[in-house]
UniProtKB/TrEMBL annotation:
<keyword id="KW-0489">Methyltransferase</keyword>
<comment type="function">
    <text>Specifically methylates the N3 position of the uracil ring of uridine 1498 (m3U1498) in 16S rRNA. Acts on the fully assembled 30S ribosomal subunit.</text>
</comment>
<keyword id="KW-0949">S-adenosyl-L-methionine</keyword>
<dbReference type="GO" id="GO:0008168">
    <property type="term" value="F:methyltransferase activity"/>
</dbReference>
<dbReference type="Pfam" id="PF20260">
    <property type="entry name" value="PUA_4"/>
</dbReference>
<keyword id="KW-0963">Cytoplasm</keyword>
<dbReference type="InterPro" id="IPR015947">
    <property type="entry name" value="PUA-like_sf"/>
</dbReference>
<protein>
    <recommendedName>
        <fullName>Ribosomal RNA small subunit methyltransferase E</fullName>
        <ecNumber>2.1.1.193</ecNumber>
    </recommendedName>
</protein>
<keyword id="KW-0698">rRNA processing</keyword>
<feature type="domain" description="Ribosomal RNA small subunit methyltransferase E PUA-like">
    <location>
        <begin position="24"/>
        <end position="64"/>
    </location>
</feature>
<feature type="domain" description="Ribosomal RNA small subunit methyltransferase E methyltransferase">
    <location>
        <begin position="73"/>
        <end position="234"/>
    </location>
</feature>
<dbReference type="Pfam" id="PF04452">
    <property type="entry name" value="Methyltrans_RNA"/>
</dbReference>
<dbReference type="GO" id="GO:0032259">
    <property type="term" value="P:methylation"/>
</dbReference>
<dbReference type="InterPro" id="IPR046886">
    <property type="entry name" value="RsmE_MTase_dom"/>
</dbReference>
<comment type="similarity">
    <text>Belongs to the RNA methyltransferase RsmE family.</text>
</comment>
<dbReference type="InterPro" id="IPR029028">
    <property type="entry name" value="Alpha/beta_knot_MTases"/>
</dbReference>
<dbReference type="InterPro" id="IPR006700">
    <property type="entry name" value="RsmE"/>
</dbReference>
Length: 257
């Protein structure tokens, strides 16, 4: 069943009216018909199974059939990504969402090349949000990842994750050695930009509890490194590789009258 994210306030009543891009996608792209069912999620933990009742000039009218809480069995991972150049952040957001990243924290590193002008920041934020939503819908995620605005390192390092990893090729330990015997509740992964991390940034991260780790002989690109660690963590502690349920995380609710 197709699923889409909508603002939480749209799911408060017995009916939902969809317009704009969602109306176009349902009616013109998917060629949905009256009687078809879709899942609408608020991105915070609620899933509504809805039936299309009518296509009107104002939009698509749907009736809520069932409501149910949703959850994810992924390990909560925050990807603290040094802001890369060009459109690499688009790829990081898309693939990170597919892999189950719970939060993205872009940070302005000393060697970050990308420093957009203030007038471009709003457009960039809107593009990033759209990428995350579309990736979450495509990968059938139940919850939307949090997307922070770009910030400085000290602010980005704040958090309460019990496993904090710093990807750094110098004076670091193998990832497998650090993960041995771990059962983390949540994890944070700090990645530098294309030019790498400055020594002062590494020391500040260490002071905040981040452990420098490496991948052995290979040096991964900034847009690849985070994916590699997230995949390992989700395999060991999350739901990557687990059996797929018919509708994971969603209990079977009673149908509304």
């Amino acid at each position: 069943m197709r699923r889409f994210f909508v603002p939480a306030e749209q799911l408060r009543g017995a009916e939902v009216m969809l317009g704009g891009e969602l109306e176009h996608h349902l009616g013109r792209v998917l060629r949905a018909r009256v009687g078809d069912e879709v899942e609408l999620l608020d991105g915070r933990g609620l899933c509504c199974r809805c039936r299309i009742e009518e296509f009107t000039k104002k939009g698509v009218r749907l009736r809520v059939i069932t409501r149910a809480p949703v959850r994810e069995r992924t390990l909560p991972i925050r990807l603290i990504q040094g802001l890369p150049k060009s459109d690499k952040m688009d790829l990081i957001l898309q693939k990170g969402t597919e892999l189950g990243v719970a939060a993205f924290t872009p940070w302005l590193a000393g060697r970050s090349v990308a420093r957009p002008e203030p007038e471009r920041r709003e457009r960039r934020a809107q593009r990033w949000e759209k990428i995350v939503v579309e990736a979450a819908q495509q990968s059938r995620r139940a919850l939307l990842p949090r997307l922070d605005a770009p910030m400085g390192l000290d602010e980005a390092l704040c958090g309460d994750e019990d496993l904090r990893l710093l990807l750094w090729e110098e004076q670091s330990l193998p990832l497998a050695e650090i993960l041995a015997g771990q059962k983390p509740r949540a994890a944070a992964v700090l990645v530098g930009p294309e030019g790498g991390l400055e020594a002062a940034e590494v020391e500040r991260a260490r002071a905040a509890g981040f452990i420098p780790v490496n991948f052995g002989p290979r040096i991964l690109r900034t847009e690849t490194a985070g994916f590699a660690v997230v995949s390992v963590l989700q395999y060991l502690y999350g739901d990557l590789g687990c059996a797929v349920a018919a509708d994971p995380g969603i209990p079977t609710p009673k149908e509304a009258p």
